[in-house]
Design brief:
Layout (H helix, E strand, L loop, with lengths): L3 H33 L4 H16 L14 H14 L3 H26 L2 H13 L1 H6 L6 H19 L10 H25 L7 H12 L10 H21 L3 H8 L9 H13 L4 H20 L9 H22 L15 H19 L3 H25 L8 H11 L5 E4 L2 H8 L5 E3 L8 E4 L2 E4 L5 E3 L2 H10 L3 E6 H6 L3 H10 L1 E6 L2 E6 L10 E11 L2 E8 L7 E10 L7 E8 L5 E7 L16 E8 L7 E11 L5 E13 L1
Parallel strand pairs: 1-2, 1-6, 2-5
Antiparallel strand pairs: 3-4, 6-8, 7-8, 9-10, 10-11, 11-14, 12-13, 12-15, 15-16
Helix pairs in contact: 1-4, 1-5, 2-3, 2-18, 3-4, 4-5, 4-7, 5-15, 5-16, 7-8, 7-9, 8-10, 13-14, 13-15, 14-15, 15-16, 17-18, 19-21
Length: 658
């Protein structure tokens, strides 16, 4: 007969084996992301900072500033890179390991503070959580942040339970134990803080929780207040590093797009985060978490509103839920409008999963009395969690990001002595090419990323000189043998003015394009065709969702090419690639010359056309025997994918031949 101890040991070994299988699955999902998805643009900054740390001992950039984002993560990445060689895979490896460690910790937290079934369900949810797969596969600090934040909250809950140890211990022993627990809590907080400064959001709810559990005077106990001093000192040091390491950075961001403001516009903020909580595959977790919280509040009311007197299950629910609710409410009401991104809730998502798992297990326990039946029900819930979470989990492996890694690898292979390289992503350029680019080319939203050095503005992270004027761009093209511009279509469409965009379209040729990023090459200044007639339109001529704002043409001579330049802007949002067909048509309706192609030479896709007028350069090859006459210039706009005509043919003007 199996004894109770042997049964518990058997169950524990089985749980460990099951967790091993879960961690193997989680590793596979994250490793697939590492191997197949291009680097998110911010990953290059982390890798570049790690490389600088290897070279000079600190993430000190060529511009003279210190890269302070994810300071601890930078050193961890640099260490792994020193051991295994710094590249894309090793740069992402720390995140993979921290992501797996967080799954193990959430299982341990759930098992100890609630029960084993809560730990299992929460770990399963985190293993399949799409954003956990993403951030555990990227060379950034979010996986590390989540790991230390979960440890911080757990350590804080553990600390307020210190005096509930066995009563036969002396008061000195209890105080020493409490001091050690609070010290561990402070260390975890500091590690989280130096992983990412967003950890500051956790300090108020953690202090509030301790006061609610033990009273405000508890914070002044000699075994408690030193930990508070350590954390406050850590926040002061972190702020000093920010201010001294990056002069003017904090002030510029607060002026351009402030972190915090009295927003209180929940209706506008909620849509940015709603998908994290009420999407079909997540609603079960949220509803179950609300259930667990309501049950715990009822128990609290029955227990004279003293959390410390509740059973551990409800205490844990209340303590952990308070951290999540505070961070969520802060983000919904006080975070600046330009910082509404789902990643800023990532640090407390394990708490959300623990709450949901607690609610599900509580419901099972109310419905089923016998332990074996409860485990069977938990197994059924596990199947449901996998069924709901598998498709979203695997979908992230198919969502490719901008391929700056591919484009810069091409430039590195093709680059020649004397070539000039410019980009709106200088850290990517610096890391891939091994040295800073020549120019940080951008015209809008660059203020927080530049600093004055030797009388000119340079990129903070790489030291590349800012190039933000079309005239500057023209001068570089005229004087350099070859100029590379590496950019993605979205930034080219949104971070530059019309004159800069026109220069790019007219002077550069796309030589490599993959995953939304194009390597453009200009080989000397290209003389534009001579246009002898120009026609501007008072109002755009509508071609469906494209509007023609003007056109110009050269001299029409039989047997010679006829240059024509159209200019287009979007008159309504465009969700597909539209091409234009320019035709020269006789009075009888016969087409004598035609050229089809994308506006802006395809460098900017039409789904990214906005108010700026962009050129559409066409060349009509006129037949040698073309009779002298007046011909119609007609345009058709059509959908490239389906061939469906958007508008046209419409006559835009007349051309005299001969």
């Amino acid at each position: 007969m199996i004894t109770g101890i042997a049964r518990r040991n058997l169950i524990f070994v089985g749980a460990i084996l099951l967790m091993g299988v879960l961690l193997a699955l989680a590793f596979w999902l994250r490793w697939q992301y590492v191997q197949t998805i291009s680097l998110y643009v911010d990953e290059f900054t982390t890798l570049w900072a790690a490389q600088r740390t290897q070279e000079v001992g600190a993430p000190l950039m060529p511009s003279g500033v210190l890269y302070t984002r994810g300071l601890l993560a930078t050193y961890v990445t640099a260490f792994v890179g020193r051991v295994a060689g710094l590249d894309y895979t090793t740069g992402r490896l720390p995140s993979v390991l921290f992501g797996l460690a967080t799954i193990a910790v959430i299982w341990a937290v759930g098992r100890r503070e609630w029960n084993a079934r809560v730990g299992w369900l929460a770990a399963l949810g985190l293993a399949l959580l799409p954003e956990a797969i993403i951030w555990s596969g990227r060379a950034r600090f979010y996986a590390q942040l989540q790991f230390f934040v979960l440890l911080t909250i757990w350590a804080a809950f553990w600390a307020v339970q210190a005096e509930s140890a066995s009563g036969n211990k002396s008061r000195v022993s209890l105080r020493n134990a409490a001091f050690i627990r609070h010290l561990i809590f402070a260390v975890c907080f500091i590690l989280a803080l130096f992983s990412q400064e967003e950890t500051i959001l956790l300090y108020p709810p953690l202090v509030l929780s301790m006061a609610l559990w033990r009273g405000w005077r508890y914070l002044l106990h000699r075994e408690v207040w030193p930990a508070q001093v350590i954390m406050l000192g850590g926040m002061a040091v972190r702020y000093a590093i920010e201010v001294l390491g990056q002069p003017g950075f904090f002030e510029t961001i607060q002026a351009e797009r402030p972190y915090v403001g009295l927003v209180f516009d929940v209706a506008a903020t909620w849509p940015a985060y709603a998908s994290l909580l009420i999407a079909p595959d997540r609603l079960l977790w949220t509803l179950a978490g609300v259930l667990a919280l309501m049950v715990a509040l009822v128990a609290l009311a029955r227990g004279s509103w003293r959390p410390i007197n509740l059973e551990r299950f409800h205490q844990a629910t209340l303590f952990f839920a308070l951290q999540f609710v505070f961070v969520l409410l802060f983000i919904l009401t006080l975070v600046g409008g330009q910082w509404r991104e789902t990643r800023y809730l990532f640090l407390v998502q394990p708490v959300w999963l623990l709450g949901g798992a607690a609610g599900l297990v509580w419901l099972i326990d109310r419905l089923l009395a016998r332990e074996p039946a409860r485990w069977v029900a938990t197994a059924g819930l596990s199947v449901l969690v996998i069924w709901l979470g598998w498709q979203p989990a695997t979908a992230v492996l198919e969502r490719q990001v901008e391929g700056y890694d591919r484009a810069f690898a091409y430039v590195a292979a093709q680059r020649q002595p004397g070539d000039v390289v410019m980009t709106p992503q200088p850290p990517a350029c610096a890391f891939v090419l091994g040295a800073p680019c020549d120019y940080y080319a951008v015209q809008r939203a660059y203020e927080e990323f530049v600093i004055a050095k030797d009388g000119v503005l340079v990129d903070r992270w790489s030291g590349a000189t800012l190039l933000n004027d079309a005239g500057q761009l023209a001068e570089v093209i005229r004087h350099a043998p070859r100029v590379w511009l590496v950019t993605d279509a979205f930034r080219l469409a949104t971070r530059y003015d019309g004159d800069f965009q026109r220069t790019v379209v007219e002077q550069f040729d796309p030589v490599f394009q993959e995953r939304g990023v194009t390597a453009l090459l200009a080989e000397g200044w290209r003389t534009l065709p001579v246009y002898t007639q120009a026609h501007g339109l008072d109002a755009p001529l509508a071609f469906g969702r494209l509007g023609l704002t003007g056109w110009k043409a050269g001299i029409a001579t039989p047997g010679q090419p006829l240059p024509v330049a159209l200019t287009w802007q979007a008159t309504a949002p465009i969700d597909r690639q539209l091409n234009t067909s320019l035709r020269l048509t006789s009075a009888e309706g016969a087409t004598v010359a035609q050229q089809d192609g994308p506006p802006a030479r395809g460098i900017i896709p039409t789904n990214l056309f906005f108010d700026a007028s962009l050129p559409d350069l066409k060349i009509l090859d006129l037949p040698a025997g073309l009779p002298a006459a007046r011909y119609r210039l007609e345009v058709v706009v059509y959908d490239v994918a389906s061939g469906a005509v958007e508008a046209g043919p419409l006559t835009i003007g007349w051309i005299d031949v001969g």
